[in-house]
């Protein structure tokens, strides 16, 4: 009989909310244009005010959403702290003031939250009832207790919940104690941090240094709840990385790569290794590294006029000049003369020979009479355009500003115009038989390390395929698709014009934000442009403002770069794994990644089997990262991204998981690194020095360590593809006679989801699903008070069903699992 394999992660999203987020007035970068330059007749050098990175503290997700919607750039390096969220913002001096006006705290060098450094706690412990018997009414549950070491230092990370956590007055406090090994007493009491998000209590947590691994922890609440839990290892005893295999070749990438270099190497690899590699071209060209030539003429007041060329700058727009001319006579109408690319606006004169054309009139005349050279002219920003336009002292040259290379940028012309993105496909069998893995790097332009990390992984595959047994298994068992940069236009802008560019180069801004001083604030955040849990559906963490760094675009999938991803996963339906590689944060994410702020309603949570599979895969991937130089991505930064960090509406992961059943990870490479010399965690950067301190922040070291993780993801996929083994499960304790009510739960031998009934019927995929007690916790506990029969089956992450049961058919075997709990109370 043919075996059943199915994926059941295909959840449809309820249409939860139709309302759109409120639209605050955009307040992005607002540097003053250099009006003196414009009036001197020279090219108006509308330079962007200098930006700097500041550390900030926000009170919580609500403030984060407001600040992001107002156009600020707060995406990366964020972390939850007890009093809210800390992060970094790339801002001008004016924006810093604006942030402060919104209530944001600007942190100094040594300010901000730090986990307790003390290894021995020191507060007085709550009185606890020692060894209180387990009760289903326990008010405290241990969510996780993880031990890890990095660079010679041990750490304990604990999450625990109290059922009274939402209570506001008084707030329930929690204390954590640990033992010092097996059969040693609890002690070292510490206060836990209460984590509240969008008004909802999440859990309490702690991270602290410890010199020896505890065996157990105990958490006590101020209302008397108590729970103990075993300490688990996090990324301890990682198997050696592939790089330690004899003869294994690595360390191919020796510096940052612009998109041209990445794509050209991808094509070269396909030529050099035709038996295992090819290029797939994505169908939608990008909008291009190109801009219209522009000028803001006449200052920024009511008489200013903003002009944009019809042609792209490099296709003739940059040759256009515009001059506002005053003639000596009186009583003259406004008119426009065009000679070649030189436009002369002959300003109207009134009866007393005064200049009499308003900005609005001049703009209209330019649009109508410039012989197609100018297709967009308008007053500056929100000005009414009623000011009388002043003559210029000569012709003003329009420019697309793209030739102003950043200091230190490589020489040479950056190709202009739309780009066809090549996908480097590597696999021995590229016919759909093997699980596909999509590695998508650099959605966000300024994130340079994800691109080098992905390229390094591709190089390792092709160079070691013939000589390394493990690599051969990957290449023969998977079908890998590398998009080495999914935002080539923005990436070039980041390399050559504006290092902090995050979005693509599309300009969707209406006139009020279309002047060239806004040019670093245009573009769509490609990772907010997808269809599931999107800002358009009321989810939080994307902006409707075209000058916001999290601008979601005018509609879902408005951008060619996001359309391409959907095209790819629909064309290659064997793609079952995806990693959206970002920097920097030291985080590994999956679903849920977005919520509706009101009530904190997340996108559907993955079933328990998928959640467990995500955790298992994360452990494997991050162990391999750690194996390189002991960088630990801490468990507080792993899980559903909206659970541990923030909501990002319309991200790619939600769409691929919920629409296509693809295990879709989001990775923030290059996060904090523990520095044993200072005893602190040192934060990462978007563009770290390539050869930095090899033990700290370094583009090179991050590329190598995170490439280890990508290679492990391929092995996860290869194992998944080979997994033909049914899962097994059991009810604990099992069926039988009990003299009093009993607590039961399900256990599985591998990540698997259980469907069950208690009414005697056959279990099907529509039956109740066995769920977590709460998110990030193990499976729920049923308190059985009367005789109950459970019918169930389990499905593993690869779709294998326990005992090869067919839940879709009414076959006569009824080969599901059964157990009866008989309760006979006296
Ligand atoms: Zn990013």
Describe how the helices and strands are arranged.
Layout: H1 35-40, E1 52-58, H2 61-69, E2 79-81, E3 84-91, H3 93-101, E4 105-107, E5 140-150, E6 153-162, E7 174-178, E8 187-191, E9 193-197, E10 200-210, E11 216-221, E12 226-230, E13 232-233, H4 259-272, E14 277-281, E15 292-297, E16 305-312, E17 321-325, E18 335-339, E19 342-346, H5 359-369, E20 374-379, E21 396-397, E22 422-426, E23 436-441, H6 449-464, H7 469-477, E24 479-483, H8 488-496, H9 560-571, E25 575-583, E26 587-590, E27 595-596, E28 601-602, H10 608-629, E29 638-640, H11 641-644, H12 652-660, E30 663-669, E31 673-675, E32 680-682, H13 699-722, E33 729-732, E34 736-738, E35 742-748, E36 752-757, E37 782-784, E38 788-796, E39 817-823
Parallel strand pairs: 5-13, 17-19, 23-24, 23-25, 25-30, 26-29, 34-39
Antiparallel strand pairs: 1-3, 1-4, 2-3, 5-6, 6-10, 7-8, 7-11, 9-10, 11-12, 14-22, 15-16, 16-20, 17-21, 18-19, 22-24, 26-30, 27-28, 31-32, 33-35, 35-37, 36-38, 38-39
Helix pairs in contact: 6-7, 6-13, 10-13
Organism: Micromonospora arborensis
Pfam families: CHB_HEX_C_1 (PF13290), Peptidase_M14 (PF00246)
Cofactor: Zn(2+)
What does this structure look like?
With 826 residues, the protein is of the alpha+beta class. The protein has 5 domains: 52-106; 122-233, Immunoglobulin-like, CATH 2.60.40; 242-261 and 421-486 and 522-722, Zn peptidases (Aminopeptidase, 3-Layer(aba) Sandwich); 292-397; 729-823, Immunoglobulin-like. The chain contains 13 helices and 39 strands. The strands form 10 sheets. An 8-stranded mixed beta sheet has the order 14-22-24-23-25-30-26-29, sandwiched between helices. α6 crosses α7 (469-477) and α10 (608-629) crosses α13. The protein is globular and about 110 Å long. Residues 1-48 and 130-136 have low confidence and may be disordered. The structure holds zinc ion. Residues 75-76, 444, 447, 582 line the site of zinc ion. Keywords: Carboxypeptidase, Hydrolase, Metalloprotease, Protease, Signal, Zinc. Belongs to the peptidase M14 family. The active site is at 668 (proton donor/acceptor). Its cofactor is Zn(2+). One of its GO terms (biological process) is proteolysis.
């Amino acid at each position: 009989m043919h075996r059943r394999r199915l994926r059941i992660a295909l959840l449809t999203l309820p249409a939860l909310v139709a309302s759109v987020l409120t639209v605050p007035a955009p307040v992005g970068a607002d540097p003053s244009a250099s009006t003196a330059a414009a009036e001197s007749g020279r090219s108006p050098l509308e330079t962007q005010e200098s930006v700097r990175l500041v550390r900030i503290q926000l009170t919580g997700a609500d403030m984060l959403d407001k600040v992001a919607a107002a156009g600020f750039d707060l995406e990366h390096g964020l972390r939850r702290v007890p009093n809210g969220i800390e992060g970094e913002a790339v801002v001008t001096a004016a924006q810093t003031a604006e942030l402060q006006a919104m209530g944001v705290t600007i942190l100094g060098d040594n300010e901000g939250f730090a986990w307790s450094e003390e290894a021995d706690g020191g507060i007085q412990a709550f009185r606890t009832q020692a060894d209180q018997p387990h009760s289903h009414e326990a008010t405290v549950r241990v969510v996780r207790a993880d031990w890890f070491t990095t660079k010679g230092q041990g750490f304990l990370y604990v999450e625990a919940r109290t059922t009274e956590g939402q209570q506001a007055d008084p707030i329930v406090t929690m204390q954590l104690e640990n033992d010092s090994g097996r059969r040693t007493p609890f002690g070292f009491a510490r206060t836990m941090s209460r984590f509240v998000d969008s008004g909802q209590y999440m859990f309490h947590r702690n991270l602290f240094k410890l010199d020896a691994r505890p065996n157990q922890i105990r958490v006590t609440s101020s209302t008397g709840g108590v729970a103990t839990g075993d300490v688990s290892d996090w990324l301890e005893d990682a198997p050696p990385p592939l790089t330690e295999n004899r003869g294994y070749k690595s360390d191919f990438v020796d510096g940052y790569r612009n998109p041209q270099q990445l794509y050209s190497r991808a094509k070269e690899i396909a030529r050099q290794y035709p038996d295992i590699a090819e290029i797939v071209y994505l169908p939608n060209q990008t909008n291009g590294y190109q801009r219209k030539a522009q000028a803001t003429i006449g200052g920024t007041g009511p008489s200013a006029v903003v002009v944009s060329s019809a042609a792209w700058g490099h296709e003739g727009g940059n040759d256009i000049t515009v001059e506002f001319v005053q003639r000596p006579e009186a009583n003259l109408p406004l008119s426009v003369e065009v000679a070649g690319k030189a436009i002369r606006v002959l300003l109207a004169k009134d009866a007393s020979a005064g200049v009499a054309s308003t900005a609005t009139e001049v703009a209209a005349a330019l649009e109508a009479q410039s012989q197609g050279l100018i297709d967009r002219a308008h007053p500056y920003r929100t000005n009414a355009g009623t000011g009388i336009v002043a003559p210029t002292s000569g012709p003003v040259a329009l420019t697309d500003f793209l030739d102003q290379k950043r200091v230190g940028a490589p020489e040479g012309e950056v190709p202009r115009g739309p780009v066809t993105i090549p996908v480097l496909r590597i696999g021995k069998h590229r016919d759909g038989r093997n699980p596909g893995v999509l590695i998508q790097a650099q959605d966000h332009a300024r994130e340079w390390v994800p691109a080098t990390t992905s390229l390094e992984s591709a190089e390792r595959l092709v160079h070691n395929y013939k000589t390394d047994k493990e690599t051969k298994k990957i290449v023969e068992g998977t079908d890998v698709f590398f998009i080495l940069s999914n935002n080539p236009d923005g990436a070039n802008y980041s390399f050559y014009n504006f290092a902090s560019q995050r979005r693509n180069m599309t300009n969707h801004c209406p006139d009020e934000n279309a002047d060239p001083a806004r040019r670093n604030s245009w573009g769509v955040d490609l990772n907010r442009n997808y269809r599931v849990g999107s800002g358009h559906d009321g989810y939080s963490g994307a902006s409707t403002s075209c000058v916001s760094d999290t601008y979601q675009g005018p509609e879902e999938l408005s951008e060619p770069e996001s359309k391409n991803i959907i095209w790819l996963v629909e064309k290659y339906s064997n793609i079952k794994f995806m990693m959206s590689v970002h920097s920097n944060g030291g985080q590994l994410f999956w679903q849920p990644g977005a919520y509706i702020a009101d009530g904190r309603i997340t996108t559907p949570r993955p079933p328990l089997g998928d959640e467990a599979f995500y955790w298992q895969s994360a452990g494997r991937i991050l162990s391999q990262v750690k194996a390189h130089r002991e960088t630990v991505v801490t468990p507080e930064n792993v899980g559903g991204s909206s659970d541990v960090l923030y909501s990002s509406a319309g991200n790619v992961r939600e769409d691929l998981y919920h629409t296509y059943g693809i295990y879709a990870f989001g990775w923030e490479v290059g996060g904090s690194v523990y520095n044993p010399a200072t005893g602190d965690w040192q934060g990462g950067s978007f563009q770290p020095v390539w050869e930095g301190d090899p033990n700290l922040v370094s583009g090179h070291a991050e590329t190598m360590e995170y490439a280890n993780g990508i290679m492990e993801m391929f092995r996860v996929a290869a194992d998944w593809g080979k997994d033909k083994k049914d899962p097994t499960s059991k009810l604990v304790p099992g069926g039988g006679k009990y003299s009093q009510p009993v607590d039961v739960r399900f256990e599985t031998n591998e990540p698997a989801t259980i469907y069950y009934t208690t009414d005697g019927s056959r279990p099907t995929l529509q039956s109740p699903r066995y769920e977590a007690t709460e998110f990030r916790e193990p499976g729920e506990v049923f308190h059985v008070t009367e005789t109950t029969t459970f019918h169930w089956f389990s499905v593993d992450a690869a779709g294998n069903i326990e005992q090869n049961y067919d839940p879709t058919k009414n076959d006569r075997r009824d080969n599901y699992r059964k157990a009866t709990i008989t309760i006979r109370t006296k």
